[in-house]
Structures are given as C-alpha cells and as structure tokens.
Amino acid sequence: MNKKNLYWICQIGGWLFFVLLNSLFLQLNNAFNTKIAIGHFSMFVLGVTISHAYRTLIVKAGWLKLKILPLIPRVIVATIVFATIIEYLQFIVESQLGIQGDKHQNTINTIINILNFSFVLFFWSLIYFLVHYIENYKKAEIENLKWSASIHEIELNKLKSQLNPHFMFNAMNSIRALVDENPTKSKEAITQLSNILRNTLQMGKNKVISFDEELKVINDYLALETIRYEERLKVSMNIHPDSKSFQVPPLMVQTLVENAIKHGISKLTKGGLIAITTTIQNENLIIQIKNSGQLATQSESDSGFGIKNTLQRLQLLYGKDASLSIKNFDSEFVVTELIIPKNVITYESDNH
Fold first, then answer.
1. Are residues 24 and 134 in the same domain?
2. Residues 278, 321: one domain?
3. pLDDT tens-place string over residues 42-75
4. What pLDDT, on the 0 to 100 scale, is given for residue 335?
5. Domain presence at residue 158
6. pLDDT per residue over 293-326, tens digit each?
7. ∠ at Cα 22 (29, 5), nearest 5°?
C-alpha cells in the first residue's frame, strides 16, 4: 500500500471514529436524531477537508523540516485557527438545520467546541509528524547503510589503484638493472621502494594524512621513476611552506603524479618535465601538477580509473568544497589542479 492511500485511509478512519464516538454519547443521552446525524456527517466532511488543508499548509510551509522548538508554536496557532474554521462552518450547518440552543448556550458551546477541535487537530498533528519523523529515521538508516557500503567499496578501489602492479614491476626491473651497474644506487632504490610499500599499507588505515607525509611518498616515487626514465624525466617542485600542514587523502596526489607520467611524459620520445606547485588561497590548498604532453581525447576506461577514484574520494571527504580539474595548459603542457579545503567531512558508518 502506498503512502497516499494509507494517508486517506487514516484521514477518513480517524474522523469517522471521532464522529461516531460523539454520536454514541448523544445516543446514550437519548439526544440523537436525524438532524444531528446530518450535522455529524457535515462535521466528518469538514474534519477531513480542513485537516487536509492543514496538511497542505504543513508541506508548503516546510514545517516538516523544522526542529521541535520552532515547530510547537506554529502547530498550536494553526490548530486553533483551523479548529475555529471548522466550528464556524459547523455552526452555519447546524443553524440551517435548526439544532442550535439559546445565545448564551451557543457562546459556551462555541468555545468548548473550538477547544475540542483544537485538541483533535493537535493530536492529529502529533500523529502526522511522528509518522513523518519515523519514516525519515528509517530513510536515514538506509542511507547510512548505503553510505557505509559505498565507503567500503571506494576504499577497496583505492587500494586497487594504489598498489599499481605495473609500477611495482617496472621499479623492480629498473632496480635489477642497477644491481651490477651501480650497487649503491640500487640499494637506495630498494629503500625507496620499501618506503612506498610500507607507507601504502600504513596509509590505507587513515582517511587523511598530512601533505608532508604525502610529499615524502611522491619524492620516493619520482626518484624510482627517474631511474627508469633517466634524462627523459625532469622534476621541479615549488612547495608552499604552509601546505605541509594540510590534510590530504593518502596517495591521492601520488596517483595524479603517476597519471601525469604515464599518460604524458612516457609517451614523449624526448621525455619532459613534471612540475609540482602548491599555493594557499582562502584557506584552501591548491596543488598544481604540470606535465609535458597534451590531453588526448580518449575513453575514460583507458586512463580514467585513477581520476574517477580521486573524484569519489574527494566527494566522500570534502563534499562540494574540493575539486579536481585536468586541462591543457598550453601547446606543450597539461595541468592538473587539485583544491583541498581545510575541513574534512567525517562520516561514521555506525552512527545511525
């Protein structure tokens, strides 16, 4: 059964119960007759109609989004106003049917009836808002479960992108070639590769790390790639001192640097330059990775996994406050710009 049908069943059933209960009391006092029955039927119609108009006000005015304290006075005023409308219209019907008493009795009855209808509408409000809040609570639980599942899925994708087997094999092949030629340098390269592997495993436990830690991994990574590309790879860094205190997702910048080498410099016969620059603007860390080459029009599946993974992680951690863009800087360079805000949005999967 959908919500609309359930709403109307509750509306009709609730007001029908209220009217029948009033009719029963009159019947017990032997005061029930045909005119009163017609009057009670009009009360039923008015109750359903006016309470539905009240619901329309609640939805249109956005009361469902309000907290309890600002909501209470609105509900009290609205129930009194709508109760007065019901009583006024009911008074007209009963006047036409000729079932009103003397003036003094009518005045007393009017006040009592307004209070009764106010109580009924207030009770109606409690049920309506309670059902709404329970429904939202269930939706929030489902969304939290979906969010938690999404986090786990992205974390798995993150590990897949971080532990790039091609990079590992290329690094080990480069080190093997150095063993006889330059044993000292090969030992240094093994240490750098070990640092990357150790940091990869340790960082996988953290949502964010300091940019200074990320920079150490990038330096080790570029040192290994320099062994592989030799003179074809030139590196330039201009790091703002304050950028090291910013928190960034682990190995995110390293993935972008790797992407720049793989899809830019590696495709150039003469190689090229990769320049990493950081600046601070409006309490945001701006990281620019400029590499030789041109941004080709290629399918996302060809080179977009690391980028897609990065966008997902940014969305999870910073919402709309972070951004990533890749474009041709000029006819010789491609620039990747990553903007990281100061604050991280924290989501706990077990807070339902």
1. yes
2. yes
3. 888 888 899 899 999 988 988 888 888 888 999 9
4. 94
5. no
6. 988 754 444 445 567 778 877 887 788 889 999 9
7. 155
Q: What is the pLDDT of residues 251-289, one digit of tens each?
A: 889 889 988 988 888 889 898 999 999 999 988 999 999
Q: Does residue 188 sit in the same domain as residue 111?
A: no
- Inside any domain, residue 79: yes
- DSSP at 248: E
Backbone angles phi, psi at 283, to 5 degrees: 65, 25
Residues 184 and 90 reside in one and the same domain: no
Helical pair 3-28 and 103-162, crossing angle rounded to 10 deg = 150
Same domain for 172 and 132: no
Regarding whether 285 and 220 lie in a shared domain, the answer is yes
Would you say the pTM of this structure is higher than 0.85? no
Contact predicate 83/117, CB 8 Å: yes
Q: Tell me how long the chain is.
A: 352
What is the span of the domain harbouring residue 177?
Answer: 163-341
Residue 83 pLDDT > 60: yes
Return contacts of 339-342, CB within 8 angstroms, 24+ apart. 339/284, 339/285, 339/286, 339/287, 340/246, 340/247, 340/248, 340/284, 340/285, 340/286, 340/287, 341/283, 341/284, 341/285, 342/246, 342/283, 342/284
Both tokens of 261, joined, read: 């080498």
Around Cβ 277, how many Cβ atoms within 10 Å? 17
Identify whether 262 is part of a domain: yes
Within a 10 A sphere around the Cβ of 120, how many other Cβ atoms? 18
